[in-house]
Amino acid sequence: MAIRALLPFVLLLASSASLLAATPAERLVRRPSDWFTSEEGKQTLNHVLAWQTKHGDWPKNVDTTKPVPAAETRPNGTFDNGATVGELRLLAKAYRITQDPRYRDAFLAGFDHILAAQYANGGWPQYYPLNNKYNRYVTFNDWSMIRLMILLKDAATENDFAWLDESRRRQASEAVARGIDCIIKCQVVVDGKRTVWCAQHDEVTLAPAKARTFELVSLSGGESEGILTFLMRLEDPSPEVIAAVEAGVAWYETSKITGFHYQKADGERRLTADPMASPLWARFYEIETNRPIFCGRDGVKKYDVMEIDAERRNGYAWYGNWGEDVADAYRKWPHKN
Fold it and tell me: Domains (ranges, CATH) in the chain?
C-alpha cells in the first residue's frame, strides 16, 4: 500500500471516554508555550523524564507528571491505556519550544522504541519487548495501535515534530502505511462478508484472539470504532480501505441495539427499556451469531450482562454509543459509495 497523507485527526475524547481518555501528560500538550519554560513546566517535565523506562516507554495508569515515589519500583512501560503516546507528544512540543536536549533524547528513545516494536506485518503489540502473554498480540484494545499510528502520522507531518530528522519522519510514514495494511488484513470475514475487528489479533496469523479471561474472541463494537474513524481520515484511501470502511459501517448499522438505555443506578449498571433512547452497541459480539456476549473473570461466556459477576458487570464498558461516532464520520466521508 502506498504511503498516504491523513486528514487532521481530533481524538474523540468526549464521545469515546470509556475507551479513550487523555492521560495527564497528553492533556498538558495543550498548555501555552510559556508554560514549558516556567518553573512549573520544567519541574513537571522532569517528572515525566524520571518515569521513562530503560526501553524508552512509560507505564500505564500512573500520573507521570507527578514525582516517582521514592520507595516505589517503577512499573514496566507499555502502549496500553494511552501510555507513552502522551508523554512523547509532550516532550516533542517541549523540545520544539525550549531546545533542551534532554527532551529530544527522551523523545527519540521512545520514538525509536515504537518503530522497533512494530511487527513486519504492520501490527503493534501492547508491550515491547515481547513476552509470552496475550499482550504480544496485535492490539486494538483501548485504541492502543490506533494511538500509535496517529502519533506516527503527526510525527511525519505536524509542526511539533518539525525538528525531527527526515529519516525518522520517513520511517514514521512507512510504519503508518504498514499499519494500514495490517488493519485491512485483520478485518474479520464471516461467511464471506467483511465485518469489523476483534480487540486483539494473533501476531502471526492475524486471527482474532482472546486476551484477559473476560475478553473473549469476538467482534468488538468498541475498538472497531477507533479503527473505522481512523480509516475515514485517510486523505487518499485505497480501494481496499474504502471496502473495509463500507463493510464496517454496514456492520454497525445491523448490530445496533435500540430501545434501551445503559446507565448506572444505585451502584448497578443495567439496560433499561426506553423507546426514545439513542442506539447502543455491545462491546463484544459473538463472531458466529453476532449476538452480544459478556464474561466475568471466570471466563464463561454469557449472553446477558446481568449473568456475570457484579465486579466485572460494573467495572467494564459493556455497552456504548460507539456506532454514533462511526455514523457521524461516515456522513462526512467524501469517499463513500
Answer: 20-186 (1.50.10.20), 188-337 (1.50.10.20)
Q: Quick check: is 178 catalytic? A: no
Query: Quick one: residue 266, left, alpha or beta (phi over 0 = left, psi -120 to 50 = alpha)?
Result: left
Q: Structure pTM?
A: 0.93
Q: Residue type for 275, please?
A: P
* DSSP code per residue over 223-246: HHHHHHHHHTTBSS--HHHHHHHH
Catalytically annotated residue among 81, 135, 141, 321: 81
CA distance 76 to 86: 16
CA atoms within 13 A of residue 186's CA, in its CB half-sphere: 34
Beta strands in the chain (DSSP E): 138-139, 189-190, 193-194, 200-201, 219-220, 260-265, 268-273, 281-282, 284-285, 294-295, 301-302, 319-320
16: confidence class by pLDDT, cuts 50, 70, 90:
very low
State the CB neighbour count (10 A cutoff) for residue 188.
22
Amino acid letter for position 281: W
- Please state, in angstroms and rounded to a whole number, the distance separating the CA atoms of residues 157 and 55: 25
> Per the structure block, which three cell numbers stand in for 11?
481524538
Between the CA atoms of 24, 27, 32 and 35, what dihedral angle is there, to the nearest 10 degrees?
0
81 catalytic? Reply is yes
pLDDT at position 9: 45
Catalytically annotated residue among 4, 212, 270, 314? 212
- What average pLDDT does the chain have? 93
Neighbour tally for 125: CB within 10 Å: 25
Q: If we measure between CA atoms, which residue out of 76, 143, 141 comes closest to residue 113?
A: 76
Name the residue with cell 515491547. 128
